[in-house]
Amino acid sequence: MTALLSLSGLTRRFGGLTAVNALGFDIGEGEVVGLLGPNGSGKTTALNMISGALKPSGGEIRLRGEPIGGLSAHRIARKGVARTFQLVRILPSLTVAENVLAGLAFRGEPLWGEAARDEADLLLRKVGLEGRAGEAAEQLTYIDQKRVELARALAARPSLLLLDEWLAGLNPAELRTGIDLVSHLRDTGITILLVEHVMEAVRALCGRCIVMNAGTKIADGETPAVLRDAEVVRAYLGTAHA
Amino acid sequence: MRTALGFAAAAIVFAVLAFAPFYLDAYGIGLMIGMTGYVTLASAWGLFSGRTGYVSLATVAFFGMGAYTVAVLNETLPYPVILLVAGAIGLLVAVVVGFSTLRLAGVYFVIFTFGLAELIRQLVTWFETTVTGTLGRYIFLPVGPEHIYWQLLVLCAATLFITWWVGRSRLGLALRVIADDEVVASHIGIDIARTKLALFSVSAVIITLVGAIQAPRWTYVEPAIVFNPTVSFLTLIMALLGGASRLWGPALGAIPLFLLFEWLSANFPDHYSILLGLLFIVIVFVLPRGVAGFAKDLTRRRPGGTPAAPKLDAAPLGTESREARS
Fold first, then answer.
1. B187–A74 C-beta distance less than 8 A
2. Fewest C-beta atoms under 10 Å: which of A162, A208, B125, B278?
3. Are A220 and A226 spatial neighbours (Cβ–Cβ below 8 Å)?
4. For B188, which of A92, A95, A102 is closest by C-beta distance?
């Protein structure tokens, strides 16, 4: 069976710095995979290459066997890769509903008009924003802006959803809500690659984890085993704890 | 229902305006031509710049190309064909310029467009003096002022219709998303370059046609007249005053400002430029979000008012666009 997402030898250099070095892994259909690592280990750079925000310096990215590495972001998005951003990026001058409509209107099979409005309502209900469609997106609270961003990503009906520290910066109650939301998505069968520092979320959501350090992959396997791995602990906490 | 009423009201206004030449003297018709011209220019400018936040100072580049095309071809081709050629030249230049510059952000785009207008003026001047050996051309076309006015009125109505249509279309939403955040735009599947290029081209063709239609008014044309940068600045300030991203905003700014400029240039011909400069400063300071934005602010202060204004009403002259953020 072909993997949904397949990376091989993926490399990105910024001048003399190699941010991602020969990264390779496969993600199967329906998997929820955590991409972990200390700050600066290259997680977001890898995510940016998958979504098309950055062009790889080398290596391959395949979506269902089709090479997508180096394509522009809008082409990759239309092939069914949706993402959220490390710092929440809603469209501030648009309403909540318009934010979601934007996700529907430009996907591979665009949805527009009455059908799109119905679908937007449905998505807003899914992320817990029913009845908020007409509100200005910029006036929402942080967690609600994250919900809008997620609804917009889901609007693309993605085959692969990339969540870049989507749960960061939430208070404990919001975090609980956030984890529930993502776990609900997982149950619908969507494939998710999740960059995350919140271990509680990683344990609750990811069946499998990939850990990066200094641009390379240092561990890949089932979450409990990976989190016990000596090298992973060393990378995160230093040698004294290993 | 509201749309139908809006269309009916617009149709009545344009019908009444169409009869104006039967009641006005030559000066009045001249005034209406100038006013309709600027309403069209400001609306076409707002169609692109008001929606994308890309402040263009290339208005006069296209306006001048339109006028100059008529000046060059007026003795060789039938008038309707000249208009088509002018439109085609505007489109061609817009596509070439758009391809090479729409990746520029914020103030770089402003400077480039200003430079483009100057470049085209200098090129035309150089070509005329060194190749054709003339500077200045005569336009003898059997097109009366009332015909110019009617053509402009049709173009103006078409521009407003296109603006209305874009506002309701996916293209309009794409532009608002781009104005808000280009990174998000590309990640939800919007082809930013193509979207901007499409709008820039439509806007440029309209501006070129305004120049072409108005050209027969001048009889004598030279680069310094038709490529006068004041046209770009007036268009911009009119659109900003009214609210560049709204359907009627540019018209709302263009009508009073045009009349004011006419009055100023008639009564203070020697100090016109100084007064104009002062006025620009006052407008940017007092109404940074335009008349329409100001009105919206007033309604917003009351409970139940609608919040959130789109891009260029909130981003006046000289404001950095949001690309820097990404």
1. yes
2. B278
3. yes
4. A102
A15-48 pLDDT per residue, tens? 989 999 999 999 999 999 999 998 889 999 999 9
Cα pseudo-dihedral A164, A170, A176, A181, rounded to 10: -40
Average pLDDT of span A41-66: 95
B93: which strand partners?
Answer: none
Contact state of B307 with A139 under an 8 Å Cβ cutoff: yes
CB B32 within 8 A of CB B40: no
Coil, helix or strand at residue B318: coil
Burial category of B181 from C-beta neighbours within 10 Å (exposed 0-12, middle 13-18, buried 19 and up) = buried
How many Cβ atoms sit within 10 Å of the Cβ of residue B95? 15
Give the contacts of B27 (CB within 8 A, at least 6 positions apart). none
Query: Is there a contact between B188 and A72 if contact means CB atoms under 8 Å apart?
Result: no
Q: Is residue A69 part of a domain?
A: no
- Number of domains present in the structure of chain A: 1
Q: What is the pTM of this model?
A: 0.83
Cβ–Cβ gap B188/A52 under 8 Å: no
The per-residue pLDDT for range A203-228, each reduced to its tens digit, is 999 999 999 999 999 999 999 999 88
Which CATH topology does B10-325 take?
ABC transporter involved in vitamin B12 uptake, BtuC (1.10.3470)
Contacts of B304 in chain A (CB under 8 A): none
Percent helix, strand, coil in chain B, to 5, is: 75, 0, 20
Torsion-angle region of A165 (φ positive above 0: left; ψ -120 to 50: alpha; else: beta): left
Host domain of residue A139? 92-153
pLDDT confidence band for A241 (50 / 70 / 90)? low
Q: Which structure tokens are listed for B43? A: 């609306």
**Confidence category of residue B280, pLDDT binned at 50, 70, 90:** confident
Say yes or no to pLDDT of B311 above 80. no
**Residue B184: closest CA among chain A residues belongs to which residue?**
A89
pLDDT in tens, B76-116: 999 999 999 999 999 999 999 988 887 787 788 889 999 99
Cβ neighbours of residue B37 closer than 8 Å, sequence gap 6 or more: B152, B210, B213, B214
- With 70 as the cut, is the pLDDT of residue B303 above it? no
φ/ψ of A202, rounded to 5, equals -60, -45
Partner-chain contact B186 A77, CB within 8 Å: yes
Q: If you average pLDDT over residues B66-77, what whole number do you get?
A: 92
Chain B residue numbers with beta carbons less than 8 Å from the beta carbon of A93 are 176, 179-180, 308-311, 314
Residue B309 distance to chain A (closest CA, Å): 6
Residue A91 pLDDT greater than 90, yes or no: yes
Cβ-defined contact of A53 to B311 (cutoff 8 Å): no
Does B301 score more than 70 pLDDT?
no
Q: Which residues of B touch A95 (CB under 8 A)?
A: 308
Count CB pairs under 8 A between chains A and B.
84
Give dist(CA B316, CA B306) in Å, integer.
21
Token reading at A18: 């190699």
